[in-house]
Design goal:
With 103 residues, this protein is α+β, with helices and mostly antiparallel strands. Helices cover 37% and strands 18% of the residues. The model has no long low-confidence stretch (mean pLDDT 95).
């Protein structure tokens, strides 16, 4: 089971999208262990509930990207957080929203 982030222009298109980033439970726990403050990481905290759906709109994604960039330094192994950051950057470049779906 994973929290899937799906890149799409509209929510009705998420089932057609092949652009996906899966956040497993371990990575999710690591993210929030390093970003406990909702005040400092408000957009990341939209994903705090691993079992709930969420929407991150295109206009919010640059701030989410900045939150992830700040968070990267707190990881010893940075591969996953960098991949997440690149995924968000690609969604920005493509002009898409991100839809989190718990499967």
């Amino acid at each position: 089971m994973a929290l899937d982030l799906i890149q799409a222009r509209h929510e009705r298109e998420i089932h057609l999208s092949r652009k996906l980033f899966a956040i497993d439970e371990g990575f999710h726990a690591q993210l929030f262990a390093r970003a406990p403050s909702q005040r400092e990481y408000p957009l990341l905290h939209k994903l705090r509930d691993y079992y709930a759906d969420a929407t991150l709109l295109l206009g919010e994604l640059p701030r989410l990207h900045a939150e992830l960039e700040r968070l990267t330094a707190q990881f010893t192994e940075r591969t996953q957080v960098r991949e997440f950051s690149r995924f968000v950057a690609q969604a920005i470049a493509d002009g898409d929203n991100l839809y989190a779906t718990a499967d």
